[in-house]
Amino acid sequence: MVMVTPGLLELAFTVVFGVGSGLGLPLGVPPAPESPLMAAVAPEECLFYTTWSGMAEPDPESPNHTEQLLAEPEVQHFVAAIEKHIRAGVARYAERQGEAEQQLARDATDWVKTLLTRQAAVFVSEVNITGDSPDVRGAAIVHLGEDAASIRASLEKYQRTLGLAVDQVEIDGQPWHQLRFEFDAPSITWGLQGQYLIAGIGEGSVEGVLARARTPKPAWLEQVHTQLPVPRRSTVTYVNLRAIIDISSPIAGPRVRSMLDAIGLGNVTTLSSVTGLDAEGFVSRTLLSLDGPTSGALASLVQSPLTPDDLRPIPADATLAIAARLNASEVFEAFLAAVERIEPQARAEIIEELGEMEEDLQISIRADLLKSLGDVWRIYNSPGEGGLVVTGLTGVVTVRDRTRLAAVEERLVAALKAEFDQGDEHAYRRPRIEQFTFAGRKVYFLNARDDDFLAAPAWCLTDDELIVATFPQHVKAYLARPDGQKSLATVPEVAGLFADGAAPVGLSYVDVPEMFKLAYPFVPAVGQLMAAELVRKGVDVDVSILPSAPAIGKHLRPSVTAIRRTDGGIEVISRQTLPGGSIGASLPAVALTGVQSITVARGRARQVQSLSNMRQIAMALFTYQVEHAKLPAAYTVDEDGKPLLSWRVTILPYLSQQGQELYDQFHLDEPWDSEHNRKLIEKMPSLYRCTSSRDGTGKTVYLTVRSPRSAFPGKEGIAANDIENPSNTVLLVEASDALAVPWTKPAEYNYDPKDPAVGLVRQNAEAFNAAFCDGSVRSHSKASDPAMLRAMFERTDIAEHGQSGG
């Protein structure tokens, strides 16, 4: 079997599965052996440094699940197909350009692949902000391997082709290219040293790289490797935050430093991250280094560690879970302190608005609510308790003062009931706060009584916990749990977080194998939809390139992320199978929206196309208006004033050349249904065909509004200055199929003043589309105020003339 180097693997999975990455593309997976040069060239004083490993061929015999997955033949085929289609897409784009641009596109594609798949390092060592532009020192080093000579020749060719100002300089006895710019910017010097491409920005950068090439790695990089151990490193990133803050403070001003102090980042020193493979999968370790204890809002977020007992409310079958220690009252006060340091007036405004809310509710949010809550928060979804993907989300927070919190609950319930109980004719449709007793506990929930609100949020206050869920059934399931039910703390991947004596202050868990089983059935369907859309855009791709479920699923393991407070600062450790961001975090959304995405995406595509049609029709109307100093009449008439043909025929020459040709075929002195003109109905232009309409050939739902004071009152066209408010006067509407008419017929929308939207809104829709006399196209809810809709349908102020229509 020929192995495919996964240069674009992570990008491909990102597109298909929605996988993101924390600090950029998850490069170097599986990692090739490290070159000591990339670490050695890092400067002793550094502001920013990142390096990524070259990509090795994945070993199917490796015990690492990530490498096993990448070695799957179906995955290899998928990667090869994605690269093929990317190259083909670039080539198709370049076909519209000249030969030079086509060659540049091909070469650039090769450069990008080289950059993604070969070992490289980028760093910035110095930034001096003086004068009009910053003085920057830094460099980039890429191991080109056997491609070194061809890429050098290619770069030299484009230097000449683009006519760049280039000097030939000598460094250590070797020739280098130095690019100079007409504007004030640091020079760039580049060249090859063996198989390494080196590009330096600023004077002396290349010399510094060459001088350090045979020296040990700097102390700060050695410390990063020690503090964040990963057996097979893929990427290493280092940011000297303290130095960057010092450089930017004179420009940003003292308030920025005050804000950092308030949120707890005043004593931050560096941010470091290392990713790669361990014995089982992909691991990412990130450390925010602090010089001293945590403070401000950060201290409220990073408190004492969790214990296994804190995870008791989360069942062992949870497909996703989050647990953390968080003092809500302290976090809010720290937030206010940060706001005050940035803008004192803003804090006063927040307090004022908070006071008004508290007065209405008759509670103190800070003293009664936030201080009554405990500091252990958990959110989870449990299939065993009726949760599907995320529909069963349940939150459980400890309670510090049950009596005070019960009083808050009582007042909130009373306020909500008073708000919902208005006693008008629509009271039967208003939301209600319902309550019932279960397992000796009072449970409340919101009965929205709205088919668009797909939840019934519920809560229950026990002696020591507040339980909140998307539906009351999940609260009942929680209250009815048997004694001794296993918790998330017994799951091996989570139990291991507490085994080494460094328990986390926060954690997240996703049962990726289980979530994948739920999500994958939707992936081919969504993939087919995407492929069909790409084919329409000229990209010949089909759904067969997607790997099958077994090829992926058998390698997946749960994803676990832990936040710990260490002697060096705050560390975040994530372990999963796929490199980059957690696939588990995206799988719930894939499964939850999978079915809807097929119909919704098609519906959205039809909606976009319809809006585009209306814009083009409106543009034709405006072009006619410019030429004739007025809009076209709603219909043409014969000598006796009898309507003949619709405005849709009149503007045919303003739609396109084909429209002119069709217009010339009409007998303009005959009605729309004459023997001759009737034959032209089937030739309706595509712009008049609404993509959401299922009506027959030759019928349209793009109608003007007919009334004495609309933009199309009848046989006379309206001048632009006769329309008082163009931005709020309807030009044409998209009606429902019930109102569809033959496109040549002089029939329009005659609205009912009592119910102006009747007939416009499609079945199962909540809005209709309208184009306005200023050229905009907008959707309007069927629930809009009738008086507002009547005003939109009139070109003059109806308050001056009374209601009209019909």
Describe the structure.
By secondary structure, the chain is an alpha+beta fold. Among the domains are: 310-326 and 371-502, no CATH class; 598-801, no CATH class. Helices cover 35% and strands 22% of the residues. It has 25 helices and 28 strands. The protein has a 20-stranded antiparallel beta sheet, sandwiched between helices. β16 (458-461) and β17 form a beta hairpin. α4 runs antiparallel to α5 (99-117), α9 packs across α10 (254-263) and α10 (254-263) runs antiparallel to α12 (328-342). Residues 1-25, 581-602 and 798-806 have low confidence and may be disordered.
- Give the amount of beta strand, in percent: 15-25%
State the major sheet. Answer: 20 strands, antiparallel
Low-pLDDT segments: 1-25, 581-602, 798-806
DSSP E strands, number:
28
Which short descriptors sum up this protein?
alpha+beta; 20-stranded antiparallel beta sheet; four-stranded antiparallel beta sheet; 28 strands; 35% helix; disordered N terminus
Secondary structure elements and pairings:
Layout: H1 9-17, H2 36-40, E1 48-52, H3 65-71, H4 73-95, H5 99-117, E2 120-130, E3 133-143, H6 148-161, E4 165-171, E5 174-180, E6 188-193, E7 196-201, H7 205-212, H8 219-227, E8 232-239, H9 241-252, H10 254-263, E9 268-277, E10 282-290, H11 296-301, E11 320-325, H12 328-342, H13 344-361, H14 365-369, E12 373-381, E13 394-399, H15 402-420, E14 432-438, E15 441-447, E16 458-461, E17 465-469, H16 472-479, H17 492-495, E18 506-510, H18 512-519, H19 523-536, H20 549-553, E19 559-566, E20 569-576, H21 583-628, E21 635-637, E22 643-646, H22 647-650, H23 657-663, E23 699-700, E24 702-703, E25 730-734, E26 741-742, E27 767-772, E28 777-781, H24 786-792, H25 798-801
Antiparallel strand pairs: 1-2, 1-8, 2-3, 3-7, 4-5, 5-6, 6-7, 8-9, 9-10, 10-20, 11-12, 11-18, 12-13, 13-17, 14-15, 15-16, 16-17, 18-19, 19-20, 21-22, 23-26, 24-25, 25-27, 27-28
Helix pairs in contact: 4-5, 9-10, 10-12, 12-13, 18-21, 19-21
